[in-house]
Fold:
Amino acid sequence: MAGWLTWLRPRRAGPLDYAARWPLRLWVMAVLVFLYLPLASLVLFSFNASRRTIRWEGFTLDWYAYMAGDDALIGAFANSLTIAALSTLASVVLGTLAAIALWRYRFFGRGVFDGMVTLPIVVPEICMGVAMLVFFGQIMPWPRDLAWPFDLGAITIAHITFSFPFVAVVVRARLASFNREVEEAARDLGASELRAFADVLLPHLRPALVSGALLAFTLSLDDFVITFFTAGPNTVTFPVKIYSMVRFSVTPEVNAASTVLMAITVVLTLIGMALQGTDMAKR
Structure:
């Protein structure tokens, strides 16, 4: 018996084991370089003094100042932030409610409802964009002169439809680790259903809510395809504005705007990780 236990005991890694890991490490490094080298090049050339991005002529911050003075670009960025904030708030609420309903209740048509919730995740964005275009322009049962204007409202609804399934998936994954007996104990001690939800279930879901909100915000902020089909002529978001700029040439101003967008995304991600770390430390 002792011999079998010795055989099952993990052995120390030898020189051959370290040598065998080098191909895997090199492959991982190559993948990381392939993924992040274009982003690093974009950030680097946003400080290029030359207007041509293929030639480095010195360091400058003029393109960031030029970007800050571009009223059209700033307006488009403000539109994107507004749409992302509204769609994130609605997506977190709808996604959380849908996840709790699918996790807690058994009802007729539950499988169909589950499939409908996750359908926007697998449907190509081009199909959703065309569907939203037809929906807002043709199908809605209101007079032609009162048709839904293709403005921030239409884009926000389209982004909510696209984003809240991702929140639902994240929240359902978190609910799988919840002990229902804790909530039942709170109910037995006199807590109402709403109080048990606020004091027991919601704290458990907080990391998933933060992750889902960051995911929904990022998806809305950088979405182009759906926005392109639902935006009107007087409504321009940041990705659509960038697309209109790169149709002619990729200038350092575009690189600077993209760098700012990436910086905001990284900061939000770090904030989310910090909030989750604080929540885990309290536990």
Remarks:
- The chain is about 75% helix and 0% strand.
- The mean pLDDT is 79.
